């Protein structure tokens, strides 16, 4: 994501495993969406109860589990790292999922250019990069501009679910939403529908506190 030249993600190594690359070759044409194209959500998921956009799905484990558990919903998953895209495609194949689509690229640019206003039911933002150093705090994706953008893309009853294992980021998230007139909500108990992931497990192993948030568009 770029915000006046500032990225909210780290460009990690792009080396893919043979299995990830094979899944990309086999299934991208079916489940991938080319960045820059306009998305017709009603055409993409004509019978979906809800369409949810996940920003930064990592290796896709939680994405696949949620999509499998909620086949009536459509999921559009955004990620910048090719290995994660390849892994999610392999999970889509493994679980025979038909309700997931993937976009590779910068989430902010994708939301600004590919989605119609008031077209999305919900957002998932699970364990975004916390940028723990004070000098890097400005790189955190959750800020006032991000709230304005997702508010524009959400339907009237729309929402965002967020999880983080970094206490300082949890406090920052609460402060940003508290300063906004666009959303209502706050910290919630861990949702039973959100699967545990290896990344979350690593945080728990380090005694990190996991915080979950649910915010809805204000009436």
Automatic annotation (TrEMBL):
Top-rank lineage group of the source organism: Bacteria
Enzyme Commission numbers on file: 2.1.1.33
Annotated catalysed reactions: guanosine(46) in tRNA + S-adenosyl-L-methionine = N(7)-methylguanosine(46) in tRNA + S-adenosyl-L-homocysteine
Annotated PANTHER family: 3-DEOXY-D-MANNO-OCTULOSONIC-ACID TRANSFERASE/TRNA GUANINE-N 7 - -METHYLTRANSFERASE, PENTACOTRIPEPTIDE-REPEAT REGION OF PRORP DOMAIN-CONTAINING PROTEIN
SUPFAM superfamilies attached to this UniProt entry: S-adenosyl-L-methionine-dependent methyltransferases (SSF53335)
Binding site residues for substrate: 133, 165, 197-200
GO-annotated molecular function: tRNA (guanine(46)-N7)-methyltransferase activity
GO cellular component term of the entry, any: tRNA methyltransferase complex
HAMAP family noted in UniProt: tRNA_methyltr_TrmB
Natural source organism: Candidatus Planktophila limnetica
Keywords from the UniProt entry: Methyltransferase, S-adenosyl-L-methionine, Transferase, tRNA processing
Name of this chain's protein: tRNA (guanine-N(7)-)-methyltransferase
Pathway(s) annotated for this protein in UniProt: tRNA modification; N(7)-methylguanine-tRNA biosynthesis
Binding locations of S-adenosyl-L-methionine: 54, 79, 106, 129
Region (Interaction with RNA): 135-140
Family assignment from sequence similarity: Belongs to the class I-like SAM-binding methyltransferase superfamily. TrmB family.
Any Pfam family: Methyltransf_4
Function: Catalyzes the formation of N(7)-methylguanine at position 46 (m7G46) in tRNA.
